[in-house]
Write a structure and sequence with these properties.
Strand content: 15-25%
Number of domains: 2
Order of helices and strands: HEEEEHEEEEEEHH
Number of helices: 4
CATH topology of the largest domain: Chalcone isomerase
Number of strands: 10
Length: 205
Amino acid sequence: MQKMKLVTGGLVAMTVLALQSVSSSIAADDKQYFNIANGELARPTGYREWIYVGTPVTPNDMNDGKAAFPEFHNVYIDPASWAHWKDTGKFRDGTILIKELVSVGAKSATSGNGYFEGDFLGLEATIKSAEHFPDEPGNWAYYSFSTPDHKSLTSSAKAFPAESCNACHQASAADDFVFTQYYPVLRAGKGTGMDAIGGVKSELP
């Protein structure tokens, strides 16, 4: 009996240490995904290794030839913020979302007619940080690394003026300035823990 208590106590202690380690790891990762210095954000790297949340597109064809954002937007969220989103259903301070801009390429394939991704056009980022943006609505700021000719990327970028992006996000975004209504991965993952990882549930909401 005494041996069983020792084993159980050891397992509990190991579990607590493991949870503390995960928590510390996530806290340490807060600064890992972006670097802001002298008012400029260094272009993040490695974001294709993050969690992919979706690809909306508003093509010119469906907007009288004048779509505000006619390209595909491949969107990724950093792993620490995804873990927090799964657990709490909230975007943590330190969240970064990357938006990779891709042109509309071919409009037909062996599967039929549609909109298919073409070439990379640019890169944008959205960051929530009370430390860096205490006066911005929701503490969110928005960046673009795209050059005017869309042929290359800048190594760093300054945040857009708040009025350029925040007003639309504040008025129409479903969750804390983020358009989660257009990203089923984020909707399914909101505060759902293990169910968020995919393949766990059989029901399709």
